[in-house]
Write a structure and sequence with these properties.
Length: about 120
C-alpha cells in the first residue's frame, strides 16, 4: 500500500559529484564540466584573481578547477569515432576515383534542367 508523504516528510535525492581540487589538476588530464557536459583535456592551468582555472582543448575556454570533475573513460569513444571517419573518407575517395563514377560524370552536360 502506498501512502503519500505528509507535510513534514520529504524525500532527498542526491547525486554525489566530486569536484577537483588544485592539487589534483594536471596538464593533459581529462576533465568534465558537469553543468554543460563539456569534456576535454586540460591544456594549461592559470591563476586568475586568486582562483585556479583550466583551459580545455575542446572549447579553449577556462573553467574553475573547483567546478570540474575528472573524466574517466571518455577518450575511447572519441578515438573510435575518428577511426570510423577516416575509414569512411577512404571509401568515399575510392568511390569517387572509380572509373564508373568518372564515366558517369563525363556523360552529364553540367546544365540544371530540374524545372517544370
Amino acid at each position: 500500500m502506498y501512502t503519500a508523504p505528509s507535510g513534514n516528510d520529504f524525500i532527498v535525492c542526491t547525486r554525489r559529484i566530486v569536484y577537483m581540487i588544485a592539487e589534483e589538476a594536471a596538464v593533459g588530464m581529462r576533465a568534465r564540466y558537469p553543468r554543460t557536459g563539456t569534456t576535454g583535456r586540460i591544456m594549461r592551468l592559470e591563476t586568475i584573481k586568486g582562483d585556479l582555472f583550466a583551459e580545455l582543448d575542446t572549447t579553449h575556454l577556462f573553467y574553475r578547477i573547483d567546478q570540474l570533475v575528472e573524466a574517466v573513460g571518455a577518450g575511447e569513444r572519441v578515438t573510435e569515432q575518428r577511426d570510423d571517419s577516416i575509414e569512411r573518407l577512404k571509401k568515399e575517395r575510392e568511390f569517387l576515383s572509380d572509373s564508373g563514377f568518372q564515366e558517369a560524370l563525363s556523360h552529364i552536360d553540367q546544365s540544371c534542367e530540374g524545372g517544370g
